[in-house]
# Entry
Amino acid sequence: MTTITMNRRKIVLSAVGATGLVLGSGRAGDVQAQAPRTPESNLGHYRFRVGEIGATVLSDGIIGGPPRVYASDAPEQELQEVLKRAFLPADHMTLNLNTLLIETGGRRILLEAGAGQTMGPNGGRIFARLAEIGLSAGDIDVVVVSHTHPDHVGNLRTADGGPAFPRATVFAPKADWDFFVLGEPDLSYMPVPEEFRRRFGAAIKRSVEPVAKGVELYEAGAEIVPGLTTIAASGHTPGMVSFLVHSRGDQLLLTADLAYHPVVNIDQPWRPGPDRDKDAALSARRRIFDRAAAERIPVLGFHYPFPGLGHLLRTDTGYAWVPAGWQF
Ligand SMILES: [Zn+2]
# Structure
């Protein structure tokens, strides 16, 4: 049994190495794809279908911070009780980075680029995830981001300043581009230290710089490709959207950052501190959550525990998150 396991590991590792060799173009994405997986790591992808569209959640890793940041209006004692009841640490909340690859119409489309190293050392795993499924960054045709926060655009830039997805057309919401990329935004609304805000703003500009020339700026409501529609969800940022993937009567709703963690933003109604316009964010959250609940649409949460799939249930007082069961 031990032998079989070891042989398997060897096979996986050499397959990853081979992908890097075949596609080795000197880009950081390929370098990361060649990085050996540590023996203790789990695979970080999860496949399913939406009608005829192939879908794969690819984990870019994790980020996190003080729970207070993600539950800005929670009474302190209640917040601590809720975290304890959910078996979560009192002082740190982990957020996942669940990017979604969809394959439709002969194109590979990545929804959210992921964080890279912009928000700590535990992002930037997407290139290894792509290698797990036999792909590399050069196989991605389109990248669509819901908004331009660093954890959604960080992987667009390689370490040497090039475009990390060399063939991809990048789609970003115009209102976010105007605000964060072209503008000099006042980020004092974010409940984090000034130094963090400064790095946050700079990371956005730096991450999108290699793709700025060819970027496609979209308005909320736009259909990016057949089967992928954007839904206005501004509030968290000026231009944030939700995504609706649909095919042959099946649907999947991607809630982007309408909620960070189900325990504090769904099962409890607390508001994320980084929401720029908290009232607009709240009404977008209610409008889109109500639709998902009423139409029983499967949901993917970018920051929910991996793979982030489940349903939103309407309760007497708000909502409840119901994770989907694992499927082979
Ligand atoms: Zn985010």
